Each structure stands twice: as C-alpha cells, then as structure tokens.
Amino acid sequence: MAAATATAAAKGNGGGSGRAGAGDASGTRKKKGPGPLATAYLVIYNVVMTAGWLVIAVGLVRAYLAKGSYHSLYYSIEKPLKFFQTGALLEVLHCAIGIVPSSVVLTSFQVMSRVFLIWAVTHSVKEVQTEDSVLLFVIAWTITEIIRYSFYTFSLLNHLPYLIKWARYTLFIVLYPMGVSGELLTIYAALPFVRQAGLYSISLPNKYNFSFDYYAFLILIMISYIPIFPQLYFHMIHQRRKVLSHTEEHKKFE
C-alpha cells in the first residue's frame, strides 16, 4: 500500500497517456500514443475520474463546514470514495489491452493496495471509520488523484499546463508521507478489532488443512512499508529533478 500513495509522481498509468512528462525528455524519439478512439475514451475516463475526486473534495469541505469539526468526515464521502477508488481497477485493464504503456503487474499492485485498504480494512472494520488517520489518507489521496487525472487529461490533449506538471512532481513531497502515515495508522487501529473478531482468519482443523491469520497478514503489510517507502520516495525525488529541470531548460530555449 505504500506504493499506492506514490501515484502523485511515480505512476505512469491510470488510464492516462503514460507519458508522465517523459516525452519531453525523449528528444527526437517519441513514443507512439494510443489511437483516436482509445485517446477519446481515455480522455473521458480521466475527466470522469477527475470530477469524481473533485466531488469527494467538495464533500469533505461541505461536511467540515456543516459540522464545524474534522472528526468522522469519512461518512460524508464514503460512497463516492468507494466508487471512484474501485473504478481505478479499469487502469489495470487499460494496461492489459495495451492502450496505456505501463506495467500490468505494477499497476495492479498500486491499484489493488488502495482497494484493499478501502474494502478489507476501512469498510470491514467499522470501528476505524471514525479514526482521524482515515481522513489523513483520504485527503492525501484526493489531492493526489485530482492532480494525477488532470495531468493525464491534459497530456492526452497535448496541452499540459506547467502548474499541473509542477504540482504532480512537487506536492508528493508532503502528500506521500501524509498518505502513508494515514494508511499505517488506520491498519494499526484495526488490529485489535481484527484479532478480537477473528476477521477473515481461517483456523485449523478444517477440511482443506489450511490456516490463515488476517491479523498477522496486516502486520506483514505494515512491515512491508519499511523497505518500500524510502525507495519510492527517493525515486520520485529523482524523477522530479529530471522532469522539472528539463522543463526549465526547454523554456530557456523557447
């Protein structure tokens, strides 16, 4: 799940062009983009997803203004959050059929990790839905996805404003640690309830002679953040320098 929050700068899929600004740095070598029909579909997909995450952002603001508190805001955006985050599964299909030049495996991992957190943790363990940590990752995801899907939309239209490119390769500096912190704290808050209820766990003996401890599985997921987070974070720092420095050089020549 640590990888999922890295979408602000590391993800070249999501139904977008897959260019991620790399086309600027390729010199005379340009990658062949999707055909006209695929491009039209991807533009529509990204516009819809941008609008969906904007609905989530507006819902959060409206709920905060109405309640005067940031506690338990999850309930105000629960349905659109589940719908649009689950809708990101289409990104795996985009890669699989070749209209987006990204790794199916990497995209599946990135998308499924978020879907897992939404459904297998936050939805399944009702007690954590009031935790402030949920709001932490929801805000980080919301800002990230508005920027990301906007980036893809404008890239497909060959009219990418510098501000959006800058935001995509800069705001992750804060949003990535913020999202990861929210994810880890939410999983941690779910642990005692998972253990008490034996949620999704399978005990022996049974006819399949198989056991599964969901509590231990969640702990392993938390531990996996330790090697993954620094690698992705510093990779994105490197990407930021590469993309934005090239953009500045390009502007000088213009």
Automatic annotation (TrEMBL):
Primary residence: endoplasmic reticulum
Disordered: annotated segments: 1-33
Presence of the UniProt keyword Transmembrane in the record: yes
Highest taxon above the source species: Eukaryota
GO MF term set: enzyme binding; very-long-chain (3R)-3-hydroxyacyl-CoA dehydratase activity
Gly residues bias (residue ranges): 12-21
GO biological process, one term: fatty acid elongation
Membrane topology (UniProt): Multi-pass membrane protein
Name of the protein this chain belongs to: Very-long-chain (3R)-3-hydroxyacyl-CoA dehydratase
Source organism per UniProt: Saimiri boliviensis boliviensis
